Amino acid sequence: MLNKRTDKIKITRRKGIVLAGGKGSRLLPLTLGTSKQLMPIFDKPLIYYPLSTLIMSGVQEVLFISTPHDLPSFQRLLGDGSKWGMMFNYAIQDQPRGIADAFRIGRDYLDGEPSVLILGDNIFFGHGMQAVLSHAETRSGATIFASLVRDPHRFGIVELNANYDVIGLEEKPAAPKSHWAVTGLYFVDGRAPDFADEIECSSRGELEILSLLNHYLQRQQLGVEILHRGYAWLDAGTHESLHQASDFVKTLQDRQGLLVCSPEELAYRNGLISIDRLAELADEQKQSTYGEALMTIVRQERDDLSKR
Fold first, then answer.
1. Per-residue pLDDT for 12 more than 80?
2. Cis peptide before 29 (omega within 30 of 0)
3. Could you tell me the end-to-end alpha-carbon distance of the chain, in angstroms, rounded to an integer?
4. Which residues of 260-299 are buried (b: 16+ CB within 10 A; e: fewer)?
5. Which stretches make up the Nucleotidyl transferase domain (predicted)?
């Protein structure tokens, strides 16, 4: 575990949205009984990973959007957010109408404020990730995060010029103009719900996020953060990727002795909860290796504090 407290993030007025809907059809039969975002990625539910990214973004208030069937399960798991020093809200997406639909569903919750939307099956990891997120917070308009992929025809692709400015967006192109995929993390300003109202459904019957982002691109207000070598972006939406993500997290935690994307640890290190509250959360889970890892952090932090 980390021995030193990291620099605290600055809490932002930007609100968070986690889109955790859909049918999870690529994971059948696993998703017949539960949401894919509730499935384990090694020692934590998948939903913990995007939540951790939002904590690192400085977000303190989050809206979770899911299906009528799955939403109660998320509420039982996550509660109102107070145990992590946060505020959680919940909303229903009764049909999979696309990513951009999240901004229409969340219009009243956002109330004109800027937001950061993350897909519930996306995992981000890398040294300096918090700094990348902090830099995105300083931009106006909208910001996307791009990661290099071998098979760009399977993804939404961003075309960049020599200065890494965004000059085009394409959805699963047959002849990709780059290998930079648009990941499932989007920083937008308060106009996003209005832009979502203006776009039309695609041939898939969905409100495509690239269509919404094109509104910003047309106004030259779309920035990009490049996730270069050393950053991991995992989309745990298939059997193979779910397994790979678990192996990735297990390998890092076993080798380095660090927790990957722990909301409890991140809430403590970023000043949302106290060391005593972290100890309580660790004690509640002490029968598991995850709880043991949290308690190790508590012991290390108390020892470090006693030496100051």
1. no
2. yes
3. 19
4. bbbbbbbbbbbebbeeebbbebbeeeeeeebbebbbebbe
5. 15-249
